[in-house]
From TrEMBL:
Reactions performed catalytically: Hydrolysis of terminal non-reducing N-acetyl-D-hexosamine residues in N-acetyl-beta-D-hexosaminides
Keyword vocabulary terms for this entry: Glycosidase, Hydrolase
PROSITE patterns per the UniProt record, alphabetical: GLYCOSYL_HYDROL_F3
Protein's UniProt name: beta-N-acetylhexosaminidase
Sample GO molecular function, one term: hydrolase activity, acting on glycosyl bonds
Source organism (scientific name): Paenibacillus rhizoplanae
Length: 563
């Protein structure tokens, strides 16, 4: 099921628009700007008009970044997108990090449990709804392009980037579920973008910092990442994001002895030779963000920008407005061919035609977007989205280890509990969302003692020696993406907490990970571990219910969590 052909009218619009563009306008189509980095207030219509006349970009990134947090109101984004659509000479696309539902980018919309939770539920029908509801909410808020789903594989337990942003470690499951999410998105008006080609999750390092390496052999790559990519392409994914990730078998030694890794974002062998020619992808190729360390180390600005475009990239993500001058000069002196530029712009315009953005109403309003009411979808549909999110929350919670049969806890016998905080990463840094877990315990009428200071290390043992006893002890762990850059593991004070709790002699801690599924690697002595994958509000509530036997544990671990 490749992408459906354009209608005669759509194709005529593409070709007519292509021919009407100046060189600068052609270049602008291949740049995606960041709405949050504009050099003036975003609602300054006169400023936006002047900006687009000088820098006629083809798409904007809006909403919060996945490595930070959701931001803003849906109605504001919708109005802003309509205003820009009305100002721009050519129709715009609006992308966002809608990885875990539209609420992962826009605070007023519905945030879903992450992809790893969806993998733990392992249900294609749920995956399709995940994409569908992301699309309905996202398009209503002005988005037409989701930089999702993640199609990476968690093959290295120490990988710090994709911990809960993928479908686990098994290619077959990742292929099935990512394709279902993609279909749900695209059949409801939102372009999907599979990422990060050729595949994150093998390296233990972070491509935000350096170029990372997918070190699999050609045979192993095709049986894993290649299998997922082949499924996404055959199912008609509209766009693919390349990562600042080298692929050893295709580029190893290409630059000579001692050469540095060649990220896919500058590699013609990976982007054109592998993705386009060998795998047959004919949609839009988008680079990952060009302000990341894995790209910056390639060369000076001009070199890395031209290499990124010439390797087969259609849209460069956040190159900055210097991009226009560099590309104009490169076309003029022959380093970039006009034919190659027009080929990319044709693909971009075809994507816009498929999404119907070329047919926006007067004033830029999107006729395909559902209405918003009080910054949400209409009540009936809003309830459906939130019910779906809660259903997934209940389906994902996984009992990884229960060696002593400690779970489920007996509600009638548990009165006083201890919470050993494993989420205090460094001095002075706390993640207050763990209060959701503590509040759920208190709501049950439990007396809750909290240990979140680990000097001296023997504090817990001293409490025991004073005669304090608890009916249950919990060791909950949470670390948000980039909460401690370059790791997803318990480090710093969180690691000290692991040391501290081994001083106890009467406590059998129940580990609960609201983040990495690999807590047993760092806390192998845990007899009991529950993986919940996120501090999604419904997930936390239902995790506590599962701990006390009020609902069953339904999830299956999407990774090999045991050591």
């Amino acid at each position: 099921m490749m992408q459906k052909p354009l209608s005669k009218e759509e194709q005529e619009w593409v070709e007519g628009t292509l021919e009407a563009m100046s060189l600068r306008e052609l270049i602008g189509q291949t740049m995606q700007d960041h709405a949050g980095r504009l050099p003036f207030k975003g609602d300054d219509e006169a400023g936006l008009r002047r900006y687009l006349e000088q820098y006629p970009v083809g798409s904007f990134f809006i909403g919060g970044e996945v490595i930070q947090k959701a931001a803003g109101k849906a109605e504001d984004y919708r109005d802003w997108a309509a205003m820009l659509q009305g100002i721009s000479r050519f129709p715009l696309l609006f992308s966002g990090d809608l990885e875990f539902g539209a609420g992962s980018a826009v605070r007023s919309l519905t945030a879903f449990p992450p992809l790893l939770a969806l993998a733990a539920a392992d249900d294609e029908a749920l995956a399709y709804e995940y994409g569908k509801y992301t699309a309905l909410e996202g398009r209503a808020a002005g988005f037409t392009w989701a930089l999702a789903p993640g199609t990476d594989l968690l093959l290295n337990w120490m990988n710090p980037v994709i911990t809960t942003r993928c479908f686990g470690d098994e290619a077959g499951r990742a292929a099935r579920l990512s394709a279902a999410v993609m279909r749900g998105m695209q059949e409801h008006g939102l372009a999907a973008c599979a990422k990060h080609f050729p595949g994150d999750g093998v390296d233990y390092r972070d491509q935000h910092i350096i170029t990372t390496v997918n070190s699999l052999s050609e045979e192993d790559w095709f049986s894993t990442y290649g299998r997922v990519a082949g499924e996404m392409i055959s199912q008609g994914v509209m766009s693919y994001m390349t990562g600042h990730i080298a692929l050893s078998w295709i580029e190893d030694g290409a630059g000579g002895a001692g050469s540095k890794p060649v990220p896919a974002t500058v590699s013609e062998r990976i982007t054109t030779g592998l993705l386009r020619e060998r795998l047959g992808f004919d949609g839009v190729v988008l680079s990952d963000a060009l302000d990341m360390g894995g790209f910056l180390s390639w060369g000076d600005y001009t070199q890395r920008i031209i290499d990124c475009f010439n390797c087969g990239t259609d849209v460069l993500l956040w190159p900055g407005v210097r991009y226009f001058a560099v590309m104009e000069q490169a076309v003029e002196d022959g380093r970039v061919s006009r034919e190659r530029l027009k080929a990319s712009v044709r693909r971009i315009l075809e994507l816009k035609a498929r999404l119907g953005v070329h047919a926006a109403r007067a004033g830029g309003e999107d006729g395909r977007a559902l209405p918003l009411l009080d910054d949400k979808l209409p009540p009936g549909l809003d309830r459906q989205v939130r019910q779906f999110s809660r259903e997934l929350a209940g389906r994902c919670i996984t009992l990884v280890r229960n060696r002593t049969g400690q779970l489920p806890l007996n509600p009638g016998a548990v009165r006083r509990v201890l919470v050993i905080m494993l989420n205090k990463v460094t001095e002075g840094r706390r993640y207050e969302r763990m209060n959701l877990f503590v509040e759920q315990l208190k709501t049950r009428g439990l007396e809750v003692d909290i240990l979140d200071e680990f000097e001296p290390l023997t504090t817990l043992r001293q409490w025991e020696l004073s005669g304090v006893r608890w009916d249950a002890a919990f060791a909950p762990y949470f670390l948000p993406l980039h909460g401690m850059m370059n790791t997803a593991r318990p480090v710093g004070e969180a690691a000290k907490a692991i040391w501290a709790m081994q001083h106890a002699e009467t406590v059998r801690p129940i580990g609960i990970s609201f983040a990495t599924p690999y807590l047993l690697q760092d806390i192998p002595f845990l007899d009991t571990l529950v993986n919940a994958y996120s501090l999604h509000e419904d997930t936390v509530e239902l995790t506590v219910k599962a701990l006390f036997g009020e609902i069953p544990f339904q999830g299956s671990s999407p990774v090999k969590a045991e050591i």
